[in-house]
Amino acid sequence: MTVIAEPGVAAAVPASKPSRADNAVELRDLAIIFGRTKEALALADQGANRDEIRDRTGAILGAYKVDLDIRNGEICVLMGLSGSGKSTVLRAVNGLNTTARGEVMVCHEGALVDVATCGAKTLRDIRLKTVSMVFQQFGLLPWRSVRDNVGFGLEIRGMGAAERRAIVDEKLEMVGLSNWADKQVQELSGGMQQRVGLARAFATDADILLMDEPFSALDPLIRDKLQDDLLALQEKLHKTIIFVSHDLSEALKIGNRIAIMEGGRVVQFGAPADIMLRPADAYVAEFVKRMNPLDVLCADAVMTPTAKLSREAGAVMMDGDGGAVALTLCSEGKPLTLMINGQVRTIGAVDVSGAVTRKGDVVVAPAELPLKTAIDVRRQSNYPIALVDQLGRLAGLCDHEDIYRGLLR
Amino acid sequence: MTDWLTTHKIPLGPVLATAIEWLTDHGQAFFDFIAIALSALVDGLTDLLLWIPALILVAAFAIGAYALHRSIGLVAFIVLSLLLVINLGYWEATMQTLSLVIWATATCIVIGVPVGIAAAHRPWLYQAIRPVLDLMQTIPTFVYLIPTLVLFGLGTVPGVISTVIFALPAPIRLTQLGISTVPEALREAALAYGATKRQLLFKVELPHAMPTILAGVTQCIMLSLSMVVIAALVGADGLGKPVVRALNSVNISMGFEAGIAIVILAIILDRVCKRPERRAKRRSA
Ligand SMILES: Nc1ncnc2c1ncn2[C@@H]1O[C@H](COP(=O)(O)OP(=O)(O)OP(=O)(O)O)[C@@H](O)[C@H]1O
Ligand SMILES: [Mg+2]
User: Fold this and answer.
1) Which of A92, A143, A221, B249 is at 20 to 30 A from B94, Cα to Cα?
2) Which compartment or compartments is the protein found in (chain B) (predicted)?
3) Could you give phi then psi for residue A45, rounded to 5 degrees?
4) Residue B122 distance to chain A (closest CA, Å)
5) CATH number for the domain running over A2-295
6) Of B185, B210, B283, which has the smallest distance from its Cβ to A135's Cβ?
7) Which residues make beta-bridge pairs with A345?
8) Which residue of A128, A140, A143 is in closest CB contact with B194?
9) Where are the domains of chain A?
10) Quick check: A197 and A135 in contact, CB under 8 A?
11) Which atom from ligand 1 is nearest to the alpha carbon of A89?
């Protein structure tokens, strides 16, 4: 999970633009139009919306002014209602949709290449090696066995059967389908077929994976399982994944960052907590309204940051102005000693899952403690939770007040 | 009024006749070459089929059918019905017809499948050839039997050519159908993994269209068989000849015997060719 800057400061745009070297995909002023491009672009530049453009030119504004930086190794989710242009943007990344304007920069063999202008040969090379894709309806070839489907990308690349087989078997093992290698794909359930789709995408060892609603055609339980599997695989493989979803809960669950789209434009791009706590407009708010913040937020999104805490003689006052509970910090800002009513007490700790690692009167917890767990931890202690960042420095305090405020927004 | 219409007759027929004449005058060498090559192929295959002892050939057919379909019933039918054909004395004519059908079908596939693929990839081309295909299937066979006779002379060749003209639309249409119904999603999946046009054709489009193309081939065989009598009219050897002779001499028994041999050949070819298609369908269903 991305570390969020202080609440209130972080907006839709990341505070500091990451260096270009960090990015796997950069979309710059991307516009995609189906139909008469020129007239439609001119109208869009004059501020016409999608419906007006369609009525006046018959062209459909697929995407307009899309600017996204997708970092290496992150899962970026494109989210929005049906027809909002998610697939359109996704398919621009591997050139399945032609762009009307703007750049689609993809990190291919160490350099950023513009897919829109690179020419057929480079585009094919990008598709062979750098970008692979998972489809909503799986896109498997029904007359082929599972193994031959997984090896499809390698076969297209011209790899020999023997070499292919070793890789394919490894990927099948990875998605748990080793025993199904020789079956026809039609014999598999939907969830299994999508695993085949995943294995096929992983087989080419591409750095960038495009997933167009890969789990939408599956029933909820299987979907949940596959989301977990994907996250577990990502933990190991660190791919850059662009994931399309129309389901905010899915987006919040798997996305490091989420781009919310409406009418071909990106209306907000940020971390899940950003979207939850600070929806950019009414459209995003409408989505967020139905979400349970407990499933999404972490304690650091609701805490009172260290800078705002009341202090007395350098020590942080944990009971506000009561003055009875004082936490002194060392020079680096790590919690050092705890004084309650003038007596030294022990500092306890829990890990990110809420399990007690050290007993004590005040609990120190990692800042990315899920809000659900934070509630539990706070209930079992008499004092606010002291949240620390990855370096062990006090990030802020999380009290009942903070939790309620976060839940009510 | 009608008088005026009839007196100014448009020289449609004469124009076409002149065109054919022009072809005979200027393309004789070309047509001769085709005639010689085709008759060599058909006669060669016929000679080969007749050179092999009949019983051994029957056994070979039976084994081949079993290898393809694993069906005892089909094998029994093939053996018994072919023995009946031998018994009635139509073995030679049956092999001649088989050879003609095989070459006509092969020609149809060689021309029809590529044309069907091209038409599937270019909608304008399909629009353009559709009326031609309709014409080929609806125009009475005798109409183009005459020019083929003029161009290729009497014998097996005009029979094969007429058969090809009549049967060709089936593989073209069905190949076009099979290729153009490849789901867009499959095409896109292949493109997304970097497939070239060629790879797309051989790894996605043709495998997907294969059952439909095979149906076209089966249809083509049946249409070829339905032409044997007409082919016999221009001198092609085979089962059509006894039928024509029976017609001329009002010989009921000969007509029936030759007819039964044609039906037997049709059933065998149909069963042998059709099954793989159905099996493929079941697999992908
Ligand atoms: N090939 C195309 N030709 C014409 N219009 C298209 C094409 N592809 C997409 N569109 C239009 O572009 C708009 C955005 O489509 P897109 O498929 O990107 O939506 P989406 O957000 O993926 O929606 P969904 O959740 O339904 O998949 C839609 O109005 C669609 O009709
Ligand atoms: Mg879509």
Assistant:
1) B249
2) Cell membrane
3) -65, -25
4) 20
5) 3.40.50.300
6) B185
7) A338
8) A128
9) 2-295, 300-408
10) yes
11) 18
